[in-house]
Amino acid sequence: MKVKSNIAVSDNGFVFNPGSGESYTVNPVGLEMLNLLRKGHSHSEIIAAIQANYVADAAMIERDLLDFLEMMRQYRLMQHDDE
Prior knowledge:
The protein has helices at 28-38, 43-53, 58-74, and strands at residues 2-3, 8-9, 14-17, 22-25, 78-79. With 83 residues, the protein is of the alpha+beta class. The protein has a three-stranded antiparallel beta sheet with strand order 2-3-4, with no helix packed on it. A two-stranded antiparallel ribbon has the order 1-5. The longest helix is centred in the last third of the chain and has 17 residues, at 58-74.
């Protein structure tokens, strides 16, 4: 799955879904994860990038990433790769 291409993301973490009209905010780590996802980075690349910028255990970052991806899916901000 990947982030829908029409999702707008500001530099301060404001996320807008024009398809639903809903908006969300993400914290700095969520913003970094979202930007890396939009660039097509793999889960392991995202975990490594977050670990390089923050003092955190890789297992904790992985859990946070999976939680973040689930939240993105629930808010319909993700699409299947074939869409």
